[in-house]
Amino acid sequence: MRFRLTPRETSFYDMFAASADNIVTGSKLLMELLGADTAGRAEIAERMRAAEHAGDDATHAIFHQLNSSFITPFDREDIYNLASSLDDIMDFMEEAVDLVVLYNVEELPKGVEQQIEVLARAAELTAEAMPNLRTMDNLTEYWIEVNRLENQADQIHRKLLATLFNGKYDAIEVLKLKQIVDVLEEAADAFEHVANTVETIAVKES
Fold it and tell me: In the prediction, which pLDDT does 10 show?
């Protein structure tokens, strides 16, 4: 860790932790979606929308702090990238739930539950990792595991696409379901972007 002669704004750490905790909330709502009926899904979508708005507020707070701070705990570009990637995760999860409701999907294809389980695990790891930005300790296993989970998500996504195009579904249903599983895959990619940004920060700070 480099020795610094100047104090640094420390509220960023709490803000990143809060943003990641909100993502855990979103991942739990995704899990709830799996077992919900049509009416329940609409209610879950409302709660997910509120969580997404909370995520936006957290992101804007980080940007405001960034613009008003003379000294930051690490590079401004990395702070921006980390906040943006965390926000992207929440956006994708909210979009997936919203699409399920808007498209009135009666049954999600087998394999979506695996996608969501991967996202839930990545959310837990991310929330556990954010407080460690203060010391840059115990982060290596985090980004390695998130990258492994993203590879797993890729495999699940490919299998889901194969299922959608096996002739069981009509063309319109394929379009609807493909958009949902694609958005969930984008959420997995966004988790990897967060992990890669954390790795970049850790390397610079070492």
Answer: 62
